[in-house]
Amino acid sequence: MRKLYFTTGSPFARAVRIVLDEKGLDYERAETASTPSVEERSQASATLQIPALVDGDLHLWDSAVIIDYLMKSYPNPAPRAGEAPFAERLIRSSHEWQDQLALATVQTLGASTTLISQMQWSGVRHADNAHLTRSAIRNQHVLDWCEAQIEADGGFMPGVVSAQDVLLACFCGFIDKRPLKLTWDDPARPKVRALVDRLHRRASFVANPVLWWEPGITGYTPDGTPIRAAANAS
179-217 in b/e burial notation, b at 16+ Cβ within 10 A? Predict the structure, then answer.
């Protein structure tokens, strides 16, 4: 049985869960609402990062590695009615460097955004820190580049939903749900807007919604309502 270690609010983990859903694969959820201790996290991955996937004797971490493995190892079920098929491969042999570059660029958007989020919860806002300000500016350049690469009325690959599409939509959804004073939406990016809207109506996205998180949230009810830690008695 597969087992996925993840933090609820992670957009990287959400992308992996969506790919598992697209593949029709069951898995055990090793889920935490907040960051566990170093000792606990080290049981999931040597890098202290999640998501991490255990599939039989294989133990993988890093969202791109996990997604690549799932796409290569398991066939796609028939597409749901009215939905575009999910891509067969993370990287097409005929467009290797184009697809590798799209993956790396979109992953940069996720890394910059989650860094800004983590620092904000520790009390450092991106407007007050030169490195974080540069990260916020980088995001806008990445999004402009994505707009130029996305196919008209589609995504990064024609005729299918790619993992790169999934990751981009997950990072944009994360920005929408965090009070980071960041934005991805812009009238000059209609193709990004259309892609994000379309994917968030897709069944795999609906089944794995963006969940709000802030310090003090310890879990969620089945309908997605945050459960907060009880205040210390005075």
Answer: ebebebeeeebebbbebbebbbebebbeebebbebeeeb
Q: Are 87 and 157 in contact (CB under 8 A)?
A: yes
CA angle 35, 2, 175 (to 5 degrees): 40
**What is the percentage of the chain residues whose pLDDT exceeds 90?**
75
CA-wise closest residue to 136 among 104, 108, 164: 108
* CATH number among 3.90.226.10, 3.40.30.10, 1.10.10.10, 3.40.50.720, domain 3-82+209-228: 3.40.30.10
User: For residues 42 and 15, what is the distance between their CA atoms, to the nearest angstrom?
Assistant: 22
Residue 175 burial (C-beta neighbours within 10 Å; 0-12, 13-18, 19+): buried
pLDDT digits (tens, 9 = 90+) for 176-228: 988 899 999 999 999 999 999 999 999 999 999 987 666 666 666 656 666 77
Note the pLDDT tens digit of each residue in 4-33.
998 888 999 999 999 999 999 999 998 776
Name the fold adopted by 93-202.
Glutathione S-transferase Yfyf (Class Pi); Chain A, domain 2 (1.20.1050)
Separation of alpha carbons 85 and 77, rounded Å: 9
Q: Which amino acid is at 223?
A: D
Distance CA 124, CA 18 (A): 31
